[in-house]
Amino acid sequence: MDIEGVLAITFIFGGGTLFLLAISPIGKALAERIRGKAADAGELRAALADHKEAVEQELEAVRREVGELAERLDFAERLLAQKRDAARLAPPGS
């Protein structure tokens, strides 16, 4: 096989692979990145900061709810303990 045959095979398979890559989503994203149409770093930072703030607010709300649930559980445990103590301390025959 001569060099021209190898080049022809490389061109056919390499060209086909590059064409498929170019029409794929990865190829399109790469092309946009090269053209400079990708999202600006400042925009990404602002979006991440907004997302972080929203997550922090949700986390604080969950913490408050867990605190309220802990207080309710303590109250229920005290009520149950009072009933047990009252039944244990009741005079016999009543």
Uncertain parts: none
What is the number of strand segments? 0
Structural category is mainly alpha
Q: Quote the beta fraction.
A: under 5%
Tally the structural domains: 2
Mass-distribution shape: elongated
> Approximately how much helix is present in the residues?
over 70%
Q: How many strands, what sense, and barrel or not for the largest sheet? A: none
Structural Rg: 35 Å
What gap, in angstroms, lies between the N and C termini?
A: 109 Å
Helical run tally: 3
| Subunit arrangement of the protein | single chain
Q: What's the average pLDDT?
A: 83
Order of helices and strands: HHH
Notes on the protein architecture:
It is a single chain. With 94 residues, the protein is mainly α. It folds into two domains: 1-38; 40-89. Helices cover 86% and strands 0% of the residues. It contains three helices and no strands. It has helices at residues 3-23, 25-35, 41-89. The model has no long low-confidence stretch (mean pLDDT 83).
Q: What are its keywords?
A:
94 residues, mainly alpha, 2 domains, 3 helices
